[in-house]
Design brief:
Elements (H helix, E strand, L loop, with lengths): L3 H13 L6 E3 L5 E2 L6 E4 L2 H9 L3 H9 L3 E4 L2 H12 L11 H13 L14 H9 L2 H14 L22 H12 L3 H8 L16 H15 L7 E5 L5 H10 L2 E6 L2 H13 L6 E5 L2 H8 L17 E7 L10 H11 E14 L12 H7 L8 H10 L3 E7 L1 H17 L1 H7 L2 H19 L3 E9 L29
């Protein structure tokens, strides 16, 4: 009798209509598939039950987080090979991960089981359902997979999955819970992944540079774009562990405030500020940008008597890797609030991941794995939409710089850090969460490399009525390496 791996591969190829591009090793030690390909290890029948009860990306993700699926060999190559099965299949009848779901209801009855009432389907699932329901061979294949998976209800989701969310998206309370899910997982864990810089956004690389050098250069690039000077007031929205405000205060002499919703980030950043003796110039608050905007409305810009370092309006605002949490419905409010917090002539540097535009923007859906395990309620928007909303809020957009390739390099560096000490990373948080970070960062690196997503720095000005932007005629000087060809600085 064929082993479990041979049966899995044969049935998957019958249902998907295409060869399985990776080698498969099952719980009974059987193997099947291309000998030179990375190995997808199916450690338990539970992995099959997860995928059958929740077909597509989320079922696979749950099995991965639970340790029931693994990859031996090059993870990047394995993800690249499997992308066509999981994310990129044509929306043809009977194709794609949704096709498994399509026949499951009838196949489950043939296998003597009851299907759940709310499966998740991939793109084009309705047409795939109709096709498979009419195909006796596909129904038999799905029923055989159900028998191979074994009896029983679907396993519960891993503990690392975000709890079911209720109420409207992007309220103050719901956003706090979403941010805590991602960032309050242990500062020691983030130190291991991010390295000493503790910067959790795209670095700015030179050839043969290190991660620390690239993160330092990114912080300095932001400060130069904002034209920071001694005595100015800087607001950093989503300030993380305080790396940018510390760099700006230390090297440019500004007075800075960072706001974050993560209490663990704030505690870590405040400790760094005290150790550097900058508590009189740098402050980190646990506060939503919307609360800050309401608080600052009508206040003077001078140092105040409430023990805080500084208030608005601000000379410059940075928002680095934070706007992805705002959401489409709230983005205009976000842009309006930042505009109100700036003084006339002030600059905004908005550093934000972007997705490719869709023909039908109403069809956009948040990636189910990212939403469940990484960034609950996070949303990506095309760069054109972001620029348009900033302009409608009153900003004059002066420069847009894509750093897409830089983020791929950054993510690969973080994956190397994680893989180099994975056992310790698992102890610092949980094995499941360490697996989440490894998968999401590796998959994201590939997404940036393949131009499925990008990241952009948008420089905008609250241009006064006089029309003077305060920018030099040749703004690209700030991106020039000091050792570069002078002609490149123009």
């Amino acid at each position: 009798m064929a082993g479990a791996a041979q049966r899995i591969v044969a049935l998957a190829e019958q249902l998907l209509g295409t060869p399985v591009p990776v080698r498969v090793r099952a719980w009974d030690h059987s193997e099947a598939g291309p000998p030179s390909a990375p190995v997808l290890v199916v450690r338990s029948r539970r992995a099959l039950r997860r995928v059958l009860w929740r077909p597509g990306e989320l079922g696979l993700a749950r099995a991965w987080v639970a340790g029931e699926l693994d990859v031996e060999g090059d993870l990047y190559r394995a993800l690249d090979l499997m992308a066509g099965l999981i994310w990129e299949r044509d929306e043809q009848p009977g194709s794609g991960p949704g096709s498994v779901a399509a026949a499951r209801s009838e196949a489950a009855s043939e296998a003597g089981e009851k299907a759940d009432s709310a499966p998740s389907f991939g793109p084009g699932w309705a047409r795939g359902a109709l096709s498979l329901a009419r195909d006796p061979a596909s129904r038999r294949a799905a029923a055989e997979l159900l028998r191979l998976a074994g009896p029983g209800l679907p396993p519960p989701p891993p503990a690392e999955e975000a709890r079911r969310r209720t109420g409207l998206r992007h309220t103050l309370g719901r956003d706090r819970k979403a941010i805590s899910h991602h960032y309050d997982v242990g500062n020691d864990f983030y130190e291991l992944v991010l390295g000493p810089s503790m910067v959790y956004s795209c670095a700015y690389w030179r050839p043969d540079g290190t991660l620390e050098e690239a993160q330092r250069d990114k912080l300095d690039l932001i400060c130069r774009k904002l034209a920071l000077r001694e005595g100015q007031r800087l607001l950093d929205v989503g300030g993380g562990w305080g790396s940018l405000v510390l760099h700006a205060a230390r090297n440019y002499g500004v007075r800075a405030v960072a706001v974050t919703l993560s209490r663990e980030q704030a505690a870590y950043g405040r400790k760094r500020i005290a150790e550097e003796g900058l508590a009189d110039r740098v402050e980190i608050r646990v506060q939503d940008y919307r609360e800050l905007a309401r608080e600052e409305a009508g206040r003077s810009a001078s140092p105040r008597g409430d023990g805080r370092v500084t208030g608005g309006p601000y000379d410059a605002i940075s928002s680095v890797g934070m706007a992805e949490h705002v959401g489409a419905a709230r983005y205009r409010e976000y842009a309006d609030d930042l505009y109100a917090l700036l003084k006339p002539g002030g600059r905004l540097l908005n550093h934000q991941i972007a997705r490719r535009p869709l023909e039908d923007e109403e069809a956009y859906e948040v990636d189910p794995f990212i939403d469940a395990y990484v960034f609950p309620d996070g949303e990506l928007a095309p760069i054109g939409r972001t620029v348009g909303l900033l302009e409608r809020a009153g900003f004059e957009v002066r420069d847009v710089e894509s750093l897409r390739e830089h983020y791929a390099l950054t993510l690969r560096a973080w994956v190397r850090n994680l893989e180099a000490d994975f056992a310790r990373a698992a102890r610092l948080t949980t094995p499941g969460r360490a697996r989440v970070w490894r998968l999401y960062m590796a998959a994201s690196a590939l997404a940036f490399e393949r131009n499925r997503i990008g990241v952009n720095q948008v420089l905008a000005v609250k241009t006064p009525e006089s029309g003077g932007s305060g920018l030099p005629l040749r703004t690209r000087r700030w991106t020039a390496d000091a050792t570069a060809d002078p002609a490149a600085r123009d």
